[in-house]
Amino acid sequence: MKNDDNKIKDVRNTVNLISGAYTLPLIEKLFPNSQKISDMDDIYFAIAALVDTGRISEAFHMIRGLFGIAGMEYPQEIAQLEKSEELQESFASEFIFDFYDVIEDKRLETEEEKIPV
Fold first, then answer.
1. Residue 29 CB-density burial (10 A; 0-12 exposed, 13-18 middle, 19+ buried)
2. Rounded-to-integer distance, Cα 63 and Cα 113, Å
3. Tens digits of per-residue pLDDT, 35-64?
4. What residue spans define the domains of the chain?
5. Residues with Cβ < 8 Å from 25, sequence gap 6 or more?
6. Is the Cβ–Cβ distance between 81 and 91 less than 8 Å?
7. Residue 11 reports pLDDT greater than 90
8. Element containing residue 84 per DSSP (H, E)
């Protein structure tokens, strides 16, 4: 039982690393110079709504489409996750968490730029 728990933990860590490695570069390519944060929010909320309603396959299609729009190759590491429903769900959840973190970081950067020194 403990060995299975370790394997599950390792898989989750790997999925987390894959998401972290690709989410930030994707968002930076889609939204150079932080453009409008509301545009990032719109994409985030659309993907989050798909994940929250269990429409993981559609979320993956949207994520794949974002790579295409950004002119980036769809990473093989993410494509490999599509073979398992559990891995898809895990990745989609990690992706939206990472996406949210990036949006919040961009929001803070934008607010800091507005503060006169």
1. middle
2. 30
3. 688 888 999 999 999 999 999 999 999 999
4. 2-114
5. 72
6. yes
7. no
8. none
